[in-house]
Fold:
Amino acid sequence: MLLLLKLVLVPLLMYGVSLAARRWGHRVSGWLSGLPLIAGPIMAVLCFEQGAAFTVEVAVALLTALPATAAYCLAFCRICALAGWLVSLLLSWLVFAVLAAPLATLQIGPAPALLLAVGSILLAFALLPRPAGAATLVRIPRVEIALRVAAAVALMLTISYGAQALGARASGVLLTFPIGGSVLPAFTRALHGVDATRHLLRGFVAGLIPFPLFFFVLALALPVVHPVAAFAAATVAVAVMHMGVFVGLRRWG
Structure:
């Protein structure tokens, strides 16, 4: 069930954000990638299969590991100006791994984990280099979209099997691994250049700002209310904050 959900969600998300880049530009497609469109439904399935306590543990572990995702984005954005897409991707993955490993061992509650996650994302956004030019619409051929989808599915399957073998905390950490944040910047750097990649990653990191709120609400609500109510509250909270970030992104860039 969980694998089937991922096999459906990951291609749909990658296809959708690629079409969004065609319609509104790389920054908006990056911002859309920050929604918990994959992790959210996966958490719902985990809750159904493993129970609320397991899901809370995954949610807190995910929050704790999010600074590694923020650092990954910052690293890729800076390295891509000096190297091609492959070197940028490999070095940024290394940054993620080096930070995620010790973060996975932290034993902290939902509130400190939320502060750690949001603070690291805001810091990464502040340190991202600004694009030289304004965002523009781009032509993304169908073959590129197909390759993006295939690469995302392959990456997701690798992470998925690792999570199944390693338990709740490792599952939370692996859910922070930037699948869309790997595929989209790599293709954008290779085919559309450094400036487009910066637009994409500024949108992606801005979209990550409300992302931790979903898991924080879950961690607080699941022990005390029905799972349907907990997921509904988390979805409303992240949707409202996400729209606020979008308005701010348009106004202040």
Notes: The chain has twelve helices and no strands. The first helix runs from residue 2 to 24. The chain has a mean pLDDT of 82. The radius of gyration is 17 Å.
